[in-house]
Amino acid sequence: MNLVHISGHLVQNPDPKTVGERLVLDGTIAHNHIFKDRAGERQEEVVFIPFEAWNALAETMSRYLTTKRRFLLSGRLKLNRWEDEKGRHAQVVLVAEHIEFMDAPSKASLEEAQPAL
């Protein structure tokens, strides 16, 4: 089973693009992991996870998601491989299949999302 859930914030506001006839949104989620070390001191690690969302999910995310909103992404992991003049590369990406917003949107973001009448 390839299923991942991760919560956090966007690293930067989304900028969807069209690939063929499909809408895609590429982004990075920052997840803060807070724990106590062996000495009992509070520590924090930030993990940056690249993700991609397609079609209706990409549209929803681009409309309502900003760097200030906490959210939970569910999806699967995919390994992207490519080669260029610098050599071979590989990157694990979360392919988003579901999003849950973990806080209420700001009034400004709701007004921006509403079509003008």
Walkthrough of the structure:
It is a single chain. The protein has 117 residues and is mainly β. It contains 2 helices and 6 strands, in the order ββββαββα. The protein has helices spanning 55-64, 107-113; strands at 4-10, 17-19, 22-36, 42-54, 71-84, 87-101. Strands 1-3-4-6-5 form a 5-stranded mixed beta barrel. Strand 2 (17-19) and strand 3 form a beta hairpin. The protein is globular and about 55 Å long. It starts with a strand and ends with a helix. The relative contact order is 0.23. The model has no long low-confidence stretch (mean pLDDT 89).
Mean pLDDT: 89
CATH superfamily: Nucleic acid-binding proteins
Query: What separation lies between the terminal Cα atoms?
Result: 46 Å
User: What structural class do you assign from the helix and strand content?
Assistant: mainly beta
How are the strands ordered across the major sheet?
A: 1-3-4-6-5
The backbone outline, from C-alpha atoms, is globular
Known CATH architecture: Beta Barrel
**Largest β-sheet summary:** 5 strands, mixed, barrel
Helix content: 10-25%
List SSEs in N-to-C order: EEEEHEEH
CATH fold description: OB fold (Dihydrolipoamide Acetyltransferase, E2P)
Strand content: over 45%
Rg over CA atoms, rounded to whole Å, is 17 Å
Number of separate structural domains: 1
Count of alpha/pi helices = 2
